[in-house]
Every structure is written in structure tokens, then in C-alpha cells.
Amino acid sequence: MTIKRVLTGVKPTGTPHLGNWVGGIRPALELASRPGTEALLFIADAHALTTLPSPEDVQKSVYEVAATWLALGLDPARVLFYRQSRIPEDFELFWILTCVTPKGLMNRAHAYKALAAETMEKTPEDPDRQILMGVYNYPILMAADILLFQAHQVPVGKDQLQHLEIARDLAGKFNQAYGETFVLPDPLIPTQAEPLVGLDGRKMSKSYGNTIPLFAPSEVLRALVFKIQTNSLPSEAPKDPDTCALFGIYRHFVEEAEVQAMRARYAAGIGWGEMKTVLFQTLEAVLAPKRALYQELIADKKRLDKLLENGEDKARAIARETLKTVRTKVGLWA
Ligand code: TRP
Q: What tens digit of pLDDT does each residue of 37-65 get?
């Protein structure tokens, strides 16, 4: 069997919620455990600097992300788990790729274009003045993250597709200039039928403020579940599970047989108080052990450092090999 190398990066931001787990973390971990897959997962801490967060926030978020993924089942014996900033080869490759990147390609990047349009309104006389080169160069660093490890597949959300195209483009340009060197990476868009619903029945999202944090204490979890919006049908009335936010969450946390059984209870009429209790108990049973592990990990930075350093050693061994080839090809090394 040919081994496929799958790589993805996670920006260290914000408190993770149920939607992040169901829509991002869980599918990524499933993918990583497929036979014939070599998985790499890194914390994109250097990418986070483009928004100029405080150093304390950067550190805090890095450990939060690490503890979150580990608590949710990332097995560091199977997945190479590391911090981007600890792989200096990434930044060297970034520069070398910059030298084959047409400026016009970067001008077309969505993130830059959106910012450029915004600043054009504010300071039309000098729109680029407000734009940091970190934002502008972001897609090149992302290409380096991927190409450095010769990744075949990159699981990303739809919003990252253009970045993936840029990475492929730059791999092609380098290969054309210096001979076959880089694997052209393919995006892997998770096929998630429906996003998780939030407290108000809309998609669960930080920007809507309708999330349920993954590691909230039991009482907070309970209070949030009881805040989930429902209609005002009486207990005994038959109800439609498919338009119900409670069911919309419930179905992601139980087996198919239980989903079907719950559909029958909706048809027969289930009171909202009862369903909220069931949902809370279901979530609590799944999350309590993970919350405990998260608390344990986040309180032990030394252990997290050790785990990450171990991944970083292995990741650097791969990175050094790529860099050796790249340096030779471009003439920096004989
Ligand atoms: N840009 C990605 C995001 O915002 C994070 C990221 C950085 C990434 N480097 C990557 C994802 C390399 C995949 C591969 O979500």
C-alpha cells in the first residue's frame, strides 16, 4: 500500500466549541487513523502573528489547542504533532518559495483583497500602507508548511481552498524552475452533511455567539443546554426532530440506533424539559472524561512541551531532508 501523507494546520484562536469538534477536529482525527495514512498536525502559531496578538495570548492559545486535540483523542504516537514555530526549515523554505512567487498571484489572494478593499475606503490615497506584509505573504508561508513535508493531502475548510491552489501553483513553479522536487498537494474537503446547530438554531459559530464550549464545567453545560431555543408545543404533541436544535445536536453524539429511537419519541411526543435533560446527560457522558483530561493537560505545561518537542524532533528530521534537496537545487549548497 502506498502511504499517503496527510497534513493540516490549526490556527491557535479562541475557546473550542462543540461545532469545532464535530465539524473539524473529529473528522481530522478519523482521517488520521485511516490505514495507509501518515498524519501530521501542527499548531500554526507563526501564522497567528499576522493579527498581532499579545505574546501572552499566543502562548495561552498554543497550549489550549494542544490540550484540546490531545484530550479529544489525538494519539501522538500516530500523529506527528508539533508547533510550526519550532521548525525553522519552514521559514527558510518560505523565503525560497517567495523567490518563485509572482506578485500578481498574491494580489489575487482573497484575504489580501478583502483587506485592500477595506483600506481603500479608509485611506484611498495610500491603501497598502495599512496592510502588513505578514497578511500579504501568508499564503506563501502556508505553501511552505505543506510542501516542506511533501504532503499529498491537506484537509481544509472551503475557505482555505484558494490557499491550497496557491500551494500547488508554487510547487509547480519551483519544479519547473529547478526540476521535480515537490509533491503537488490535493485539498481534502470534509464531507460533512450538516453543520452542528447552535443555541439559537443557526449554525454553531463563534461569530453568532451561540456556541457550547467543549470543556465548560458540568453546570455551565447544563445551563447552556437548557437555553437552547425550542418551539412552544405542549409535551404530548408530536414534534419534528429535523427542525429541532436539540435533536440537531443530539444526533451527532449517539449511535444511529439511538437517533432512530429518539425520532420515535419525537413522533410520540416528548416534553422539551425531558429532551433537554436527555441531551445534557448525553453530552455530559461523552464530554466529562475529555474535560477531565483537558484540565489535567492544561495544568501541566511541561508534559505538553515534552509531547510537542517529541513531535518537533521527528518533524524536523523530515524537514531537514527536504531542505537539503531544496538548497542544493537552488545552488545554496553544492
Ligand atoms: N490557514 C489555515 C487556517 O486559517 C491554517 C493553516 C496554516 C494551514 N498552514 C496550513 C492549514 C497548512 C493547512 C495546511 O485555517
A: 999 999 999 999 999 999 999 999 999 99
Q: How many residues does the chain have?
A: 334
Is the CB of 146 inside a 6 Å radius of any atom of ligand 1?
yes
Q: Is 46 in the pocket of ligand 1 (CB under 6 A)?
A: no
Centre of ligand 1 to C-alpha 88, Å, is 17
Q: Is the CB of 47 under 6 A from ligand 1?
A: yes
Q: Is 48 within 8 Å of 12 (Cβ atoms)?
A: yes
> Do strands 186-188 and 79-83 pair parallel, antiparallel, or not at all (unpaired)?
unpaired
**Ligand 1 midpoint to CA 147 (Å):** 12
Q: Which atom of ligand 1 is nearest to the CA of 7?
A: 14
Q: Could you give the CA distance from residue 185 to residue 165 in angstroms, rounded to a whole number?
A: 9
Report field, pTM of the whole predicted structure over 0.85: yes
